[in-house]
Each structure stands twice: as C-alpha cells, then as structure tokens.
Write a structure and sequence with these properties.
The chain is an alpha+beta fold. The protein has 2 domains: about 130 residues, 60s Ribosomal Protein L30, Chain: A (2-Layer Sandwich), CATH 3.30.1330; about 160 residues, Alpha-Beta Complex (Phosphoribosyl-aminoimidazole Synthetase, Chain A, domain 2). Helix content is about 30%, strand content about 20%. The strands form 2 sheets. Strands 6-8-5-9-7-10 form a 6-stranded mixed β-sheet, with helices on both faces. It has a 4-stranded mixed β-sheet with strand order 1-4-2-3. Helix 2 packs parallel to helix 3 and helix 4 packs across helix 5. The chain is globular and about 65 Å long. Bound molecules: adenosine-5'-diphosphate (ADP) and magnesium ion.
Length: about 325
C-alpha cells in the first residue's frame, strides 16, 4: 500500500503534544508562551548535497535537523518548547521515515520540545525546522552585549566535524577511532541547551559555532562594536590521537571548520570562578580562549604572540 501524505504525517509525526493547546491536524497549531515570557524563534534548513551527503543515514538526519535548531535556542539562553517540520521528500519510503522520526524524536524528547505541525511536499530531499522557545524578557543571550575586557569562552573543542568532512572528500586518512569520533560530532551534534540556560545573567553575549569559530566570534565582535582576540594555545585540543595535530589544516579546522555546535560566549573576568563551577556541574570542558578589546575584527595569535592569517571568513552560501 503506498503511503499517502496524510498517512505519513499520522504514522510518523503525530504524537501527543501536552504543551500545545492544539497540535498537528488542523490548519494551524495553537500555542501560548507562559505568562511574562518572550518567544525565541529560529529556523534552519538542511538540503541534500549542501548540508549533507546523498545517502546520509536518516536517523542522523532526524537528529541533526533538530539539533541545529536546538543549538540556536541554546545560543539565546531560551528553553525549547515547540517546533514545526517542513519536509521535502523524493519518495515516501517507510523505512527512511521511521528512522528519520526516531532520530528526530530522540532529541526532541531529551529536550521536551514538541512537534506541532509542518508541511510535507515531494522534491529533492530537504528538511526545514522552525523552533520556538521561551525566555524571560531581558535575559536572552544576544550577540551585541560583549564589553571591552570581557573574556571569550568556548564550550568544547572545535574542528572534529570539519575533519570528518575532509575525510569524506578523501582528503584525510584518520585512524578508525578518530574518524568515529569526528563522524559522531558531524552527524549527531549535541546542542548545549543546559549551558545556554545557565548562562542567563552570566554571559554578556553568546553565539553557537556553526560556520567556524573565528567567523562566529566575528559576529559577536561586530554586533558589540569591539574586536576579539583568540590565543591559539588556549583552544582546546580535540580528543584524538595527538598525531592528528600535525595534519595539514588541523588548526584551520579548529578555527574555521564549522558544524561544531559548541557555544562561544563572552563574560566579565569577575565571572571566571562561576563559569569554572558551571563547567564542572555540566561536565563540559569550558575553555577561556581569548578576550574582547576595543577595535574591530578577530585576531588569532600563535604561541609567540604573532597574528595568524586566516584564509577565509567561515562558510557563506553565496561565496
Ligand atoms: P494544509 O493543507 O492546511 O497546509 P497539510 O495537509 O499540509 O495542511 O497538513 C495537515 C496537518 O499536518 C497540519 O496540521 C500540518 O501542520 C501537519 N503537518 C504536515 N506535514 C507535517 C510534517 N512534516 N510534520 C509535522 N506535521 C505536519
Ligand atoms: Mg500544508
């Protein structure tokens, strides 16, 4: 029996939505944020051939298509509540849909986010999620709040996803265990939602690292009217065989690789002890990697204090 559009939505995507006044099945869902809270709204699309390789594992696509949106909530300090899913499919393949939905709901359930609607069309494989979260007025972690003299922090090592992409293009030959780690980081990133929530009132600005650390920190610098300095020696090393540090482009992967979904944030030096305690509480290797200064742009200094030349400013679809 071929699966029609309505069977497909009912079978794979319709579940109880206790947090919504009305979920899937009508022309629109109905929701209300808790009294006094603001809605934080974000959307992210993934397109085959652009954001993932043809034939990608559907469980990972389900996971990642929501993870990148949850990461935006984390970067705002918002609590994720609801999301919609616009799915474009070349065919209604039951096995593919079941695995996609499992990956999607595994992460949705872990964060209490409810799927309340969407759209289903046929075409080249693509998925677009819009997410809504809640945050107290004045408490959102914006990009424009960094101050001169603030520390720059990073929630964990960057670069693994970029190394996995290079391996898939045949440019690297990582050892099996290292490749497994990098592929996991690329395919099933873990959004730092609890960290984002805990940084309300602590961080002065935040962003999630999706396009490359230097480029994303550059967005904080520009929005805040400041310069950012990163010390290469303070960047956390990837938990890989140390030999990988000699691979050409290793530092570039950490600085400009993209698809990391760690949080980069700024905070006053007076908050160092609180941030260290938070890292211990959340079991995250929070690292202080630099500082905000008067000026503009992002400078990365090597161990000798010399500025490094970064060949490109991060991923841009229309480069
Ligand atoms: P309409 O024609 O009014 O746009 P649809 O037939 O597209 O309605 O969708 C019917 C219901 O199923 C709506 O409530 C819509 O939000 C929901 N829906 C459609 N596609 C999806 C999807 N991929 N995931 C979740 N809900 C969906
Ligand atoms: Mg529709």
């Amino acid at each position: 029996m071929p699966l029609d559009e309505f069977d497909l939505i009912r079978r794979y995507f319709t579940r109880a939505t206790p947090g919504a006044a009305l979920g899937i099945g009508d022309d629109a869902a109905l929701i209300a944020p808790a009294a006094g809270l603001q809605l934080a709204v974000a959307a992210d699309t993934m397109v085959e051939g652009r954001h993932f390789f043809a034939g990608a594992d559907p469980y990972s696509l389900g996971w990642k298509s929501l993870a990148v949106n949850l990461s935006d909530m984390a970067a705002m300090g918002a609590a994720p509540r609801w999301f919609t899913l616009c799915l474009t499919l070349p065919a209604a393949d039951a096995g593919w849909l079941a695995d996609y939905a499992r990956g999607l709901f595994a992460l949705a359930d872990a964060h209490g986010a409810e799927l309340i609607g969407g759209d289903t069309t046929s075409g080249l494989l693509a998925m677009s999620i819009q997410i809504l979260g809640e945050v107290e007025p004045g408490q959102a972690l914006r990009r424009d709040g960094a101050r001169d003299g603030d520390d720059v922090w990073l929630s964990g090592p960057t670069g693994a996803a970029a190394l996995a992409v290079r391996q898939r293009y045949g440019e690297l030959a990582l050892a099996a265990a290292d490749l497994a780690h990098c592929a996991e980081r690329l395919d099933r990133p873990v959004p730092r939602v609890a960290l984002g929530r805990a940084l309300r009132g602590l961080a002065s600005a935040a962003i999630d690292v999706s396009d490359g650390l230097a480029a994303d920190l550059g967005h904080i610098a520009r929005a805040s009217g400041l310069a950012a300095e990163i010390e290469l020696a303070l960047l956390p090393q990837l938990p890989l065989d140390p030999a990988v540090q000699a691979v050409p482009g290793y530092d570039l992967a950490r600085l400009a690789g993209g698809d990391d979904y760690e949080l980069c944030f700024t905070a006053a030096p007076a908050e160092r002890a609180r941030i260290a305690a938070l890292g211990a509480e959340l079991a995250l290797p929070l690292a202080r990697i630099g500082a905000m200064r008067a000026g503009r742009g992002v400078t990365v200094r090597d161990a000798a204090g010399q500025p490094l030349a970064l060949p490109r400013a991060g991923f841009n679809h229309f480069d």
